[in-house]
Design goal:
Blueprint: E1 3-6, H1 17-24, E2 28-31, H2 40-46, E3 50-55, H3 62-66, E4 72-75, H4 85-91, E5 94-96, H5 103-118, H6 121-129, E6 145-149, H7 153-165, E7 168-172, E8 184-185, H8 188-194, E9 197-200, H9 211-216, E10 221-225, H10 234-242, E11 246-251, E12 269-271, H11 280-309
Parallel strand pairs: 1-2, 1-3, 3-4, 4-5, 6-7, 6-9, 7-8, 9-10, 10-11, 11-12
Helix pairs in contact: 1-11, 5-7
C-alpha cells in the first residue's frame, strides 16, 4: 500500500476526517511520531517508501528531496520558503499549498494580540488572579499608525480590520505597487520612522527587523510577528526591550519550536505557541484542502510519469 507522511504534529487533532479521507483513498498514513517540527535528519529517516507528504514547516531542501521517493508535497499552510522548489521541479515532485484557508484566523489573532498589548490585558489579568487590583491605563488602536510588512492575503485582511478601528495603515511590500485608499504604501525605512505598531506578515527567511531597523523605530513602539521566526532578530529585540525602546511585542513563530528562549523572561512580551491558524474552523478547512491538493497532485504526478514512460 502506498504511504503518505503527515508532517505537522497537530494534523487531524481538530478533526480526523482529513486522515480518513487519505485512508479511504487507499493510502497507508504515517504521522509525525515526535510531536514537534521534524528535523532534516528525521525526515530522511521517515521518508523511505513515502510517495506523498503533507508538509508543515519542515526543512525540505535539496538533500531531503533527492533522498526521497516523493511524487507530491502538499503544504498545509501558505509560505513555501521551507521547500526547495527548484529541486522539486527538477525531480518531478508536484508541490501545492493552501493559500486562502489561514487568512481570517491569523488576522483575527493579530488584532487580538495588538489589543492585548495596548490595553495591558495579560498583566492586569495576572495581577487580579494574584489578588492585586491593578488598574493600568492602556491605549487604543484608533489613531495609531500601523505598518504592515508583507501585504498578501493576511496583511490585507489585517488592514481591513485595522481600518474599522480607525487606525492609519501603511503597507510595506516590494511586490506591491499600489494599494486602495486610505491605505498608504511606503518603503520599510520610511514606514518604520512613523509607525506606532509594526506587524510582520511575510513568509520569507531573511531578517526584516534587526538592530538597525529597531533603532529606527520611535520609542515605545509595539512589534508583532506571526510570519516566520527569522524575520525578527531575537537578540536585537531583547536589547530594545531592555532599553524600553520597544514597549512590547507579540511573537507567534520561532526559529526553534517548542520555544524556551530569552523572550520568556519579558513580561511585556506576549508569546503564543505558533497558533496563528489554530482554530477549529481554519484547521478543518486547511487540512482537508491540503489532503485534496495532495490527492490531486499524486494523480497529476502519476499521469506525468505515465507520459514520460510512453
Amino acid at each position: 500500500m502506498p504511504q503518505i507522511l503527515i508532517g505537522p504534529s497537530s494534523f487531524g487533532v481538530v478533526d480526523a476526517a482529513p486522515l480518513e479521507r487519505l485512508r479511504d483513498a487507499g493510502y497507508d498514513v504515517r504521522q509525525n511520531p515526535f510531536g514537534r517540527k521534524l528535523a532534516e535528519r528525521e525526515l530522511v529517516e521517515l521518508l523511505p517508501g513515502v510517495i506523498g507528504l503533507v508538509a508543515g514547516l519542515e526543512p525540505l531542501g535539496r538533500t531531503v528531496l533527492e533522498r526521497s521517493e516523493l511524487r507530491a508535497i502538499s503544504r498545509c499552510g501558505v509560505g513555501m520558503s521551507n521547500v526547495d522548489l527548484d529541486a522539486a521541479q527538477r525531480l518531478g515532485i508536484v508541490v501545492r499549498n493552501t493559500p486562502d484557508a489561514p487568512t481570517a484566523a491569523v488576522a483575527e489573532l493579530t488584532i487580538a494580540a495588538m489589543l492585548a498589548l495596548l490595553r495591558r490585558i495579560v498583566p492586569m489579568n495576572a495581577d487580579l488572579h494574584d489578588g492585586r487590583w491593578t488598574r493600568v491605563p492602556g491605549a487604543q488602536i484608533e489613531g495609531r499608525v500601523v505598518a504592515i510588512v508583507g501585504f498578501g492575503r493576511v496583511g490585507r485582511r489585517v488592514a481591513r480590520l485595522l481600518l474599522a478601528f480607525g487606525a492609519r495603515v501603511i503597507a510595506v511590500d516590494p511586490h506591491v505597487d499600489r494599494v486602495d485608499s486610505p491605505i498608504e504604501l511606503a518603503s520599510l525605512p520610511d514606514a518604520l520612522l512613523c509607525a506606532d505598531i509594526v506587524t510582520l506578515h511575510t513568509s520569507g527567511d531573511d531578517t526584516i527587523l534587526g538592530r538597525t531597523e529597531l533603532l529606527r523605530l520611535k520609542p515605545g513602539v509595539l512589534v508583532l510577528n506571526c510570519g516566520r521566526g527569522g524575520l525578527l532578530d531575537e537578540g536585537a529585540l531583547c536589547e530594545a526591550l531592555d532599553s524600553e525602546h520597544v514597549a512590547g511585542a507579540w511573537i507567534d513563530t520561532f526559529d526553534e519550536e517548542p520555544y524556551s528562549g530569552p523572550l520568556t523572561r519579558y513580561p511585556q512580551v506576549l508569546l503564543t505557541p505558533h497558533v496563528g491558524s489554530f482554530t477549529v474552523e481554519c484547521r478543518r478547512r486547511m487540512e482537508m484542502e491540503a489532503v485534496e491538493n495532495l490527492l490531486d497532485a499524486l494523480e497529476r504526478a502519476d499521469a506525468m510519469r505515465a507520459r514520460s514512460r510512453g
